[in-house]
Fold this protein.
Amino acid sequence: MTTASAQAGWRFKKPSVIPGFGLTLGFALVYLTLIILIPLSGLAWRSASLGWADFWAIAMDRRTLNALKISFGTALAAAAVNVVFGTIVAWVLVRYPFPGRRIVDAMVDLPFALPTAVAGIALTTLYAPKGWIGSLLVPLGIKVAYTPLGIVAALVFIGLPFVVRTVQPIIEEIDKEIEEAAATLGATRFQTISRVLFPGLAPAIVTGFALAFARGVGEYGSVIFIAGNLPNVTEIAPLLIIIRLEEFNYPAATAIAAIMLIISFVMLLVINLLQAWSRKRYG
Amino acid sequence: MADPVLFAADTDLESASGITESRPARWALMGIAFAFLALFLVLPLVLVFMEASRKGLEYFLQTLTETDTRSAIRLTLTVAAISVPLNLVFGVAAAWAIAKFEFKGKAFLTTLVDLPFSVSPVISGLVYVLLFGAQSTLGPWLKDNGIEILFAVPGIVLATVFVTFPFVARELIPLMEAQGTGDEEAAISLGANGWQTFWYVTLPNIKWGLLYGVLLCNARAMGEFGAVSVVSGHIRGQTNTMPLHVEILYNEYNAAGAFAVASLLAGLALVTLALKSLLELRYGAELAATRGH
């Protein structure tokens, strides 16, 4: 790293005595290309070869539009629910010591570990009109299973750990002195939380929201059991892809998948920008 | 992780001084949090085991020993046994290249590793159907040569590898970056070769992080539903994994059977969570870089 590197202008890699760079990078790149990049670019190529008119016709199909609306709408609603309750859960887990805290903390990861199909049939049985929760809601006139509300319930389950696990470490890092300073300067507890603590947590909350939202949009296993899958009402976009595949309507399946990917990437980009902005604003 | 005792706020003096919430507010927040977790996490889990045992032990065992269930269990274990090691090797290789060296495009490569997480599982399956299906360019050639990928084990493995792709790598990359290159450089300068350095120096440093990643990767591999559902073809006794078998039984109105198989998967999830918490508890410091993902 002395004269040789000083002479060279642009170099791909900084010199190092550690061996194995070529081997490991080469293997990683080949594997990544074979498993991820070639299949995904196959999807991009197939949807590009559809032609603009066909693509537009599929995208503007009423059933496609409704499926996308349902997928993105319910994911948005579930992520919003998770932001509120996930933040409260994270706060309670960090700030209030209580017996069994470790077990509760471990349980938060259940949606990561429990197969989605299992979650799906369990939630459906729970919220069905005869289920433990569903039967309590029937007298109130609320139907959850086989309605969009059921999709939201499933996505709340799936998305919860994303919010808790992004917000929790940031709450742990809050310097207690900041709160003490606010208190000594005469702030009420509410003011301390809303004016001092919340701005610090905002970027993490936005990240958690984005992750829960992104996961919810693509979710399939936990949703299809509870959704009822009625076209235009409770049919999510991933299910419509599968239905089109089973009809051997490959162009439609490809186009819907491409639209989903594009919208997800754009939304993640927007959220990333929002996050950068909030970090600058409050950081 | 901050010591929770630091935040123990039990005296009214503290709450009066405004550095913690008032006692009623604290109870209210805890009540909301517990009610929410009970409703969304505990109840579904309890229900799985209750429903599984509804028709008695005999029916439970009968379901689990049926030929179709047994072949679903075997297939799920086979798929996990192939896809987890593949992603393990990739994870170690990618983490070695990314964490131990400085090169152009490193940040981009790290982003690409996470890419499968932002793709819907159904789309992860769809891309292989488009690649290998009868309508694809490759399709007729595969058929002429008698190679089965879709609606067969290779397709299920590929779809599983796709969705579990990032798990090991994303645990190892931050961990190995935090550990730096000092240990490896010392080993090399003392005359160790690359393989010895990895085996005797790096591996002991990362073994718990590696196990953590493998644990999560395995849980997802055995539980994957959407991606596998697209490529499997749902052939009973042949291409049915455990989650797909749960779906089939459930759709046949055999709820007790579906929940019996589901309870095995729920058991796997609980074991995964227990091991994961144990790793965090005992080797928290060594995993520190990977916490809070």
